[in-house]
Amino acid sequence: MIRIISGKQKGLHLNVPPKNVRPTTDFVKEAIFSMLFDVSELDVLDLYGGSGALGIECFSRGSKRVTIVENSKDVLAIMKRNISLLKDCNSINVVSSDVIDFLKRTPQKFDLIFVDPPYATSPYIDILQIIKDRDLLNQNGTIVFEMESKKEIEPIDGFEVVKNRKYGITRVMFYQHVTEVKSEDN
Question: In terms of pTM, does the model score above 0.70?
Answer without folding.
Answer: yes
